[in-house]
Design brief:
307 residues; six-stranded mixed beta sheet; three-stranded mixed beta sheet
Length: 307
């Protein structure tokens, strides 16, 4: 934990003056909308760039568990209320808080959230308009169906590029979705992938023109809402047995993530990326993450060569 605190302090010292990431919100970043007895929409909003904060995980987990107890709920749609972003990466200056976020029985809260989404007695649908990166993308993979705006959706896993292990379940979910070699490309390159490539790879269920996305998702949700809940949940459960990672697998990945917080490569890169946010600007870096991950590593390499 001391090494983790050192990494966090180092990052905060570099970026705090630029207000790079959102602090813990005064109100919840999660809002549940009742569309009908059978349909709910979960809205996520943490302006300006929809980074995930600890409260996001705890409130989303509680919402999933509460909806799971409602016998009428058959479909839950997830969407963002912040333009340009779906679920983004974790707020890096709160990493120590994430590491300490556990359930009453000591299970990592993010792992518990993914388990509850995977096993939820309803169909989960992501409506993706904008970027989903890092932990946000890993969360998105846990949803049953993912529909993306052809013009606006971008996907990226930056962790390897900044010296971290992607331990939010992505290494468990993504190979099952797109195959080992493509998953390795995604994680190792830490680059941006547009919706067209994501659809081709199988990362998302389908892409649609942005103007048609809301209508398509609403129509599908209403269709599923008319079906028998037992039939919907049973087919989901059987498919999970074949295609979903186990909780033990996700726990192993999360443990590796916690270990990676003390890797020397992360400590070497954090000051570089922190300074980049201040120099280039938050929005520009967030909207071009793949590019700036590459630029940051160039800078790290140049500094090492000068030694």
């Amino acid at each position: 934990m001391k090494k983790l605190q050192l990494v966090v302090i180092l990052f905060i010292a570099t970026v705090s003056s630029t207000n790079t990431f959102a602090q813990t919100a005064q109100k919840s970043t999660i809002r549940v909308e009742k569309v009908s007895p059978e349909i709910r929409k979960i809205h996520f909003a943490n302006a300006p760039s929809n980074v995930i904060v600890p409260e996001t995980i705890t409130d989303l987990n509680e919402a999933i568990k509460t909806l799971g107890k409602d016998p009428d709920v058959k479909v839950v749609v997830f969407q963002s209320d912040v333009k340009g972003y779906f679920f983004n990466h974790f707020d890096l200056i709160q990493m120590a808080n994430f590491a300490g976020l556990v359930t009453a029985d000591g299970k990592p809260m993010f792992v518990d959230l993914l388990t509850n989404i995977t096993n939820a007695p309803f169909i989960t649908i992501a409506s993706i308009k904008g970027r989903t990166q890092g932990g946000g993308d890993e969360l998105t993979m846990a949803f049953d169906l993912r529909y993306a705006s052809k013009e606006l959706a971008i996907f990226e896993q930056p962790e390897v590029g900044v010296g971290l292990f992607p331990g939010g379940g992505g290494t468990n979910f993504l190979p099952r979705l797109i195959g080992r070699d493509r998953a390795l490309e995604v994680f190792a390159s830490a680059d941006d992938y547009d919706a067209t490539i994501a659809e081709k790879y199988g990362w998302v269920t389908r892409t649609l023109p942005n103007a048609e996305l809301d209508g398509f998702v609403d129509k599908l949700a209403n269709r599923l809402a008319r079906f028998d809940k037992t039939a919907l949940v049973s087919v989901k459960q059987q498919l999970n047995l074949v295609a979903a990672p186990t909780e033990a697998e996700r726990l192993a990945s999360y443990t590796e993530f916690l270990k990676s917080l003390s890797w020397p490569g992360l400590q070497l890169r954090m000051p570089v990326f922190g300074a980049m946010y201040g120099k280039v600007g938050v929005e520009k870096v967030e909207q071009n993450m793949g590019f700036y991950v590459g630029e940051g590593n160039k800078e790290v390499q140049q500094k090492q060569q000068k030694k």
